[in-house]
């Protein structure tokens, strides 16, 4: 008899307490290691900023400008594109389509390799772009140095981001955490060696980040290829044997269009929200006291980045859970996974509202001794906590939409919420009605409110889970189309060779 864990349940029945508890265990066994990994990545970024600050204020300002630029133009795009892999890999794992799992990873690496070409041109020309926008020449020159030495990081991320999705879709999360832990452990000694001992300055900080990411890639790739080689076989081109290199490339390239249809809207869905925080920083610079406002914005965005590690992990894991169950043909287990994740998101959001309201002033004191900045930060912290009450379920809902292969809907919602609702409200309150700094964050609150209401409506009221399971079956079948065509061609060639061999033998007998 099949284990209850592997059974779906009927639509007219509510899940039992044991099923909910089982789903909670399943979800958090994945989400906790991913949260820890995200925190480690956050710590790595903080260490880099600390070493830039140790070098001097000019180096810190240049590094901060470069980090903002590379986030907007590079890392956000690569993370967003790689997110398009989530529905395909998770659904392929659910229906045990191992060929598609490997093939999709190869396709995404190829997509990211194409994406980094225009991105690298932007990074190389950072100085010209920033000077054209009127930035300080000394800060811009320092930023261009940091950006130039970060260029190899584009190449490491073409492997790192898809590998993270590939492993997460198979519920492999603890090894990713351990790989990140080992890599980040060496990040401080690397910075010390390159910056202090070798006196490389800003290039040393950039190179340390690149080497840390490279270490992550090597460790994760080693885990996939060596440690779990019997469980996760990467079949290049998904060919079982005799295809040549051109055939393999044909198979990999054949389904790029289908994957791009998921990757591009996934990219927009993530980037539209990511970019909005950078826009807030720019808008803060136009307020009556820009130095104070930008300093407070920096602290608040660092705080939101830290808090975002949890919903980002939850979103990635619920995307995998929903995709796994839909791929396995269990729509109501997928629905349960979605509802449990949303419940967790709301609970965590309330925790953030509480601590930001109570400890706002003390928290600001960890970043600065300036009383004016502390007062400004603590006055906005409760608003930011309310934003997180919306951000947690909104981010989780975006993960559910990716798991059901509907990133286009998420992209439309984020576009409308952040740019049609949030931006006008922020600008209107901050500049027209003279509310000031808090007006920007009320704009974010309005955007998050519009976003979470829209996403919850789509997920809870407009999702036909049985239809999504059928779509998952169709998606994995269509994605494998090009691979199957090549297999058929290879099979036909084999049959033709066999016929010729038999025919040749018959003729020989006739001659004899």
TrEMBL record:
Coiled coil: none annotated. GO terms for cellular component: membrane. The keyword Cell inner membrane does not apply. It is a multi-pass membrane protein. It is found in: Membrane. Keywords: Membrane, Transmembrane, Transmembrane helix. This is Protein DETOXIFICATION.
